[in-house]
Amino acid sequence: MFLNTSGLSLATIEPLNGCNFKKWKHSIELYLGLQGIDWCLTEAEPVIDDNSSDLETVKHKEWTRANKMTKIILKQTMTDVVRGSIADKDTTTEFMAAIALKFCENEKT
Length: 109
Known about the structure:
With 109 residues, the protein is mainly alpha-helical. The protein has helices at residues 21-35, 54-76, 80-85, 92-103. Helices cover 51% and strands 0% of the residues.
Protein backbone atom coordinates (compact mmCIF):
# COMPACT_ATOMS: atom_id res chain seq x y z
CA MET A 1 0.00 0.00 0.00
CA PHE A 2 1.37 3.41 -0.99
CA LEU A 3 0.50 6.51 1.03
CA ASN A 4 0.44 9.66 -1.08
CA THR A 5 1.68 12.53 1.08
CA SER A 6 2.68 14.87 -1.74
CA GLY A 7 -0.27 17.18 -1.04
CA LEU A 8 0.13 17.24 2.74
CA SER A 9 1.14 20.60 4.09
CA LEU A 10 0.26 22.69 7.09
CA ALA A 11 -2.28 24.53 4.96
CA THR A 12 -4.07 21.31 4.00
CA ILE A 13 -4.65 20.14 7.58
CA GLU A 14 -8.25 20.78 8.53
CA PRO A 15 -8.19 22.87 11.73
CA LEU A 16 -9.30 21.16 14.92
CA ASN A 17 -12.80 22.44 15.54
CA GLY A 18 -13.98 20.13 18.30
CA CYS A 19 -15.75 17.65 16.02
CA ASN A 20 -12.83 16.29 13.99
CA PHE A 21 -10.27 15.23 16.58
CA LYS A 22 -9.42 11.80 15.12
CA LYS A 23 -8.89 13.14 11.60
CA TRP A 24 -6.93 16.15 12.89
CA LYS A 25 -4.70 13.99 15.10
CA HIS A 26 -3.95 11.60 12.25
CA SER A 27 -3.04 14.48 9.91
CA ILE A 28 -0.92 16.20 12.57
CA GLU A 29 1.00 13.04 13.43
CA LEU A 30 1.69 12.37 9.76
CA TYR A 31 2.79 15.96 9.13
CA LEU A 32 5.06 16.07 12.20
CA GLY A 33 6.60 12.74 11.18
CA LEU A 34 7.32 14.02 7.69
CA GLN A 35 8.91 17.12 9.22
CA GLY A 36 11.08 14.95 11.48
CA ILE A 37 9.96 16.62 14.71
CA ASP A 38 7.46 14.08 16.02
CA TRP A 39 10.06 12.46 18.27
CA CYS A 40 9.38 15.02 21.01
CA LEU A 41 5.99 13.30 21.41
CA THR A 42 7.58 9.95 22.20
CA GLU A 43 10.83 10.86 23.96
CA ALA A 44 11.05 12.59 27.30
CA GLU A 45 12.98 15.83 27.55
CA PRO A 46 16.65 14.97 28.00
CA VAL A 47 17.95 16.05 31.38
CA ILE A 48 21.23 17.93 31.34
CA ASP A 49 23.47 19.39 34.01
CA ASP A 50 26.96 20.82 34.31
CA ASN A 51 28.44 17.36 33.74
CA SER A 52 26.50 16.63 30.55
CA SER A 53 28.44 15.81 27.41
CA ASP A 54 28.31 17.95 24.29
CA LEU A 55 26.17 15.26 22.65
CA GLU A 56 23.66 15.33 25.53
CA THR A 57 23.54 19.13 25.38
CA VAL A 58 22.92 19.09 21.62
CA LYS A 59 20.17 16.47 22.02
CA HIS A 60 18.52 18.64 24.67
CA LYS A 61 18.64 21.69 22.38
CA GLU A 62 17.20 19.67 19.49
CA TRP A 63 14.42 18.27 21.69
CA THR A 64 13.59 21.76 22.99
CA ARG A 65 13.36 23.11 19.44
CA ALA A 66 11.23 20.15 18.24
CA ASN A 67 8.92 20.57 21.25
CA LYS A 68 8.54 24.31 20.63
CA MET A 69 7.90 23.92 16.89
CA THR A 70 5.43 21.08 17.44
CA LYS A 71 3.41 23.13 19.94
CA ILE A 72 3.33 26.04 17.49
CA ILE A 73 2.09 23.72 14.73
CA LEU A 74 -0.58 22.23 16.99
CA LYS A 75 -1.84 25.68 17.94
CA GLN A 76 -1.72 26.88 14.34
CA THR A 77 -4.00 24.05 13.26
CA MET A 78 -6.83 24.84 15.69
CA THR A 79 -9.70 27.25 15.49
CA ASP A 80 -9.40 30.28 17.76
CA VAL A 81 -12.18 28.95 19.99
CA VAL A 82 -10.49 25.58 20.44
CA ARG A 83 -7.07 27.16 21.01
CA GLY A 84 -8.52 29.38 23.72
CA SER A 85 -10.20 26.46 25.47
CA ILE A 86 -7.05 24.42 26.10
CA ALA A 87 -4.55 25.37 28.77
CA ASP A 88 -0.98 25.65 27.55
CA LYS A 89 1.44 23.00 28.80
CA ASP A 90 5.24 22.83 28.99
CA THR A 91 5.61 19.83 26.71
CA THR A 92 3.90 18.84 23.51
CA THR A 93 3.05 15.47 25.03
CA GLU A 94 1.17 17.15 27.89
CA PHE A 95 -0.50 19.58 25.48
CA MET A 96 -1.62 16.76 23.17
CA ALA A 97 -2.95 14.83 26.18
CA ALA A 98 -4.99 17.87 27.25
CA ILE A 99 -6.41 18.15 23.72
CA ALA A 100 -7.26 14.44 23.64
CA LEU A 101 -8.92 14.62 27.03
CA LYS A 102 -11.08 17.52 25.90
CA PHE A 103 -12.12 16.13 22.52
CA CYS A 104 -11.74 12.35 22.53
CA GLU A 105 -14.80 11.94 24.67
CA ASN A 106 -16.80 13.99 22.16
CA GLU A 107 -15.81 11.82 19.17
CA LYS A 108 -18.24 9.19 18.01
CA THR A 109 -16.62 5.82 17.48
